[in-house]
Write the structure tokens for this entry.
Amino acid sequence: MIGLLLELFWSFFLIGLFTVGGGYAVIGIIQSEIVIAKGWISESVFTDILAISQMTPGPVGLNCSTYVGYEVMKNAGASEALACLGSAAASLAVVLPSFLIMLAIVRFYTKFHTNSLFQGVMSTLRPAVAGLVGAAALALMLRFNLGGSGPIVQILTDNFPDWKSWALFAASFAAYVWLKLGPMVLLAAGAVLGLLICA
Amino acid sequence: MVSLWKIFWVFAKIGAFTIGGGYMMVPAIEAEMRGRGWISEEELPDIVAIAQSAPGLLTVNMSIFAGYKLRGLAGSIAATFGCIIAPFLTILLIALFFSSFRDNPWVMRIFAGVRPVAVGIIAGYCFNLMKKQSRWWQWAISLGSIAAIALLKVSAFWVLLTLIVLSLAISLYRQNRRAGK
């Protein structure tokens, strides 16, 4: 268990280090690292965490890390106390790299962000962040398997059991992009509709 | 001199009222800092730009920076802990109770409605980012990383690391060629 706690800390340290472009990038990296690569929690648990992280106060990326830290320990059969320790480890670890880097920046007061090399790197990373987030969305809808007997694509039925869930997906996508409704409003509407129409 | 408690409380307040992404909180943080005379008008744009470019979360980065300006290392530690304390406790509380409610039929119905919406928002966020892209190489990077991560299951770390190394190499090569002319 202590080994897992250390591994969790290290994973979230890397996640914090590679977070470029804000909270939704963290979500993409967590999905890739914790859900896909390590398989520490399932897609549907991660989706629940995502929803809750967006409805509670605090930056999404931090909320998500705290919650994932808890669930990873819990999922491995840890006690309640160890799971709390897991969430503390994940939230501290995700903040630690920014802490070290920001300290170095203010210490030397470098205007690194106006450096042309840095800007070159950032301009390539921005589209990659879009890709990360897109990959997270895709992986929460479909499961891809490039197995020996040819590629298999399956719908993730935990998140999308029937046509109603696809309708909710399409409606919230459209409302977010074109009506510019915030995540809070959309998730609240999803909760109400879930109560009314989902069985 | 500002006390460490004061720094802690002000950032605890900022952390507690950030909902969604950090970007929505920038004006609130600015107002809080400027109102208290903690940060001058000229410094602000720089701080925001630096906090946005450095790795990590915007709100947390701004707290670290401002805390340091006020009271050095101790100040930045106070600001960081302040900023994360409310979200941390809220999530912990929910996590502790939610696991015993998860199998409740009403909660299951609520989450059956909430899950596709959460995915829809993430997809919409991605769409909004990609919509702004106008160059072919931006699309190549976006679609390439989607394929690598979702289909080939390459770790996001490797995707980002490869891109950082590649873009550094290309920028350095261009700089050298320009200097050579």
In short: The beta strands of chain A are 58-59, 142-147, 150-155. Chain A has a mean pLDDT of 90. The first helix of chain A runs from residue 2 to 17.
